[in-house]
Amino acid sequence: MGLLLPTKEGILVEDFILVRQEVGVAHVSLDMDWWADKQIELFDKHGIEPWRVSCWAHTHPAGINRPSTTDEATMEESFGGWDFILMLILTKAGHFYA
Question: Which residues have a Cβ under 8 Å from the Cβ of 55 and sit 6 or more positions away?
Fold first, then answer.
């Protein structure tokens, strides 16, 4: 989960929060109940609006900097009803996809 901050230039990923999830080579299952509870906690404690944690960041160690079919399925399954979500993919070589 990325903590987003709007800037004049666009959106800055200000911080990262590790998400409770189950992950395999070709499988990701995000704990969306945990994600919802974290949004409430961040709002109650710090006034952080829920849209500011609408960033799913993950790595592709093999270096492919585009969404896989697993990524696309996870986005639809986990965030399909959301108004806004940013997918950020980082690689070991320093490439990214957003």
Answer: 1, 2, 3, 4, 13, 85, 86, 87, 88
87 contact partners, CB below 8 Å, separation of at least 6 = 55, 56, 57, 67, 71, 75, 97, 98
What distances in angstroms separate CA 88 from CA 1, 44, 56, 57, 73, one per listed residue?
Answer: 10, 26, 6, 4, 15
Are the CB atoms for 65 and 96 separated by under 8 Å? yes
Q: What is the pLDDT of residues 29-75, one digit of tens each?
A: 889 999 999 999 999 999 999 999 999 998 888 888 899 998 999 89
Phi, psi of 57 (to 5 degrees): -105, 135
